Amino acid sequence: VKLARFGESGSEGARAWPGLIDLAGRMHSLAGVVDDLRGKTLSPAALARISELAVESLPMVDTETSLSAPIGGIGKIIGVGLNYRDHAQECGLALPQEPTLFLKATSALAGPNDPLVMPRGARAVDWEVELAVVIGTPGLYIDENQAMDHVAGYCVGIDFSERDFQFHRGGQGFKGKSADSFAPLGPWLVTRDEVSDPHNLTLQLSVNGATRQHGSTKDMIFSVPQLVAYISHFMSLQAGDVILTGTPAGVGMGQSPKKYLSAGDEVTATIDGLGTQTHRVVASS
Ligand code: ZN
Questions:
Q1: How far is ligand 1, taken at its centre, from the CA of residue 56, in Å?
Q2: How far is ligand 1, taken at its centre, from the CA of residue 58, in Å?
Q3: Per-position DSSP letters for 106-164, written without gaps between them
Q4: Average pLDDT by consecutive 10-residue portion of the chain (285 residues)?
Q5: Looking at the whole model, is its pTM more than 0.90?
Q6: Ligand 1 mean position, distance from CA 2 (Å)
Q7: Are the C-beta atoms of 67 and 112 separated by less than 8 Å?
Q8: How much distance in Å is there from the Cα of 39 to the middle of ligand 1?
Q9: Which three-class secondary structure state does DSSP give residue 55?
Q10: How close is the Cα of 120 to the center of ligand 1, in Å?
């Protein structure tokens, strides 16, 4: 099924209600059925119960209602660096021997149509469309063969990055990855059973209508089960944790000359079967 959260747009902590998207693309409210799409509601048993509901009996939600990130209670956002060969090449960096991991602050979370807010002093805000993997079943030291059992589903993610903060301000890339609105997720959580092959999905991102990224998850260096297993050997994975699995070529810093976002730009990101996000870029507050 496709699940979404509606209500106030914006970050973690914004008031949001759970919803279900029917086959015709209409949203129905799950308020009163589940508290929220978070924690134990993301377990296989709970998702199976939701998928068995009689959709017609659920109240419809006004399509004008804004969408939040499709899950709540996100404890950590784990980014995977350089997970596509063509992106490593455009960055002029060697292919990683092991997955490269970094964190994004959860305060960077945003809804699928929220504005992208330029942080103060930003000069090089860049885009990275990514397959976002949502953990449903907690685990530690997960075996690669069982790793997919821990995945609740997928959504579109964009790993917005301020390259100057990321590379030239000392310390880790964390600074450049974590500004408010830099981690939009959505528009829906598509449960794992609806995605027959997560390693054969087209990812696309355009800026003001011009295609910048056009890749396929089949070019990932480390697969979804490899990443889930690998990460779980360093830390437990919890229900609601999100893994951003890396981006294909076509980011702004890979263009010649480099291209970055400005206020007024519009960024659109789509992954096959997972939907589309659109973000208007706005100046810092
Ligand atoms: Zn990334």
A1: 39
A2: 37
A3: GGGEE-TTPPEEPPTT-S-EE--EEEEEEE-S-BSS--GGGGGGGEEEEEEEE--EEHH
A4: 84 79 93 94 96 93 86 97 91 91 97 96 97 98 98 98 95 95 97 97 98 97 98 98 97 94 98 97 93
A5: yes
A6: 24
A7: yes
A8: 25
A9: helix
A10: 21
